[in-house]
Specification:
Blueprint: E1 3-5, E2 11-14, E3 21-23, H1 32-36, H2 40-49, E4 55-57, E5 60-64, H3 65-71, H4 75-78
Antiparallel strand pairs: 1-2, 3-5, 4-5
């Protein structure tokens, strides 16, 4: 299991358990801001500037999890998106 740790040191769970997209910021859920260790304003400003990969769907802005992991230099972890949830990897 590959745990995701946020800046406050709490394990957020297995990377395969992360949803396909994350909110830019959320007070109580895992979000792009919590994984980056930044606050609400910084996260939304980064999304608006294009520094944070994001999609606008109506009034909602979401961050594709695989793109966020790649941005953080976690290419091998982002590749988990393509792996089956169970079974062995070759």
């Amino acid at each position: 299991m590959t745990a995701v740790i946020n800046t406050s040191g709490h394990a957020l769970g297995d990377l395969r358990d992360l949803p396909t997209t994350l909110p830019v910021w959320h007070a109580s859920k895992v979000s792009a801001a919590s994984l980056l260790g930044v606050g609400r304003s910084v996260a939304y400003e980064a999304a608006e500037r294009g520094d944070l990969p994001s999609l606008r769907i109506g009034h909602r802005i979401v961050v594709p999890t695989a793109a966020l992991l790649r941005m953080l230099g976690a290419q091998a972890l982002a590749d988990l998106d393509d792996a089956p949830a169970t079974g062995s990897r070759s």
